[in-house]
User: Fold this.
Amino acid sequence: METELPKGTFKPLAKILGPLSLWMAAGWAVYPYLVVKVYDAMGETVNAGEVELFSYIMVPTFVILGIIFIIYGFTGQEVPDAQINALNPEKWPCPRCLKPQAADSKKCENCGMFIRK
Ligand SMILES: [Zn+2]
Assistant:
């Protein structure tokens, strides 16, 4: 029994992941310099080209991800909380078998586990 989520359910998550992705991109942009610095401080040499190559992949990836998340998270209609709450009317998963149970039940209908609350 799959319940379809209303469009835009993940907007709040995207609002966090968007800026976080850009932050990650910035981190990856600085990363090669840090690695080289650390290795320099230890008196060792590191193949900076190899580290940079990895950064060249990670930076655009996170920039694109960040932009997608931000566009999705900050544009369009938000789902009202009521609509999200209506998806899951007072149900919670059984700790043992994870089957959703009515909020007022004392015992799991599926596996018979007693619930203490
Ligand atoms: Zn159960």
Summary: DSSP finds three helices and two strands in the chain. Residues 94, 96-97, 99, 108, 110-111, 113 surround zinc ion (CB under 6 Å).
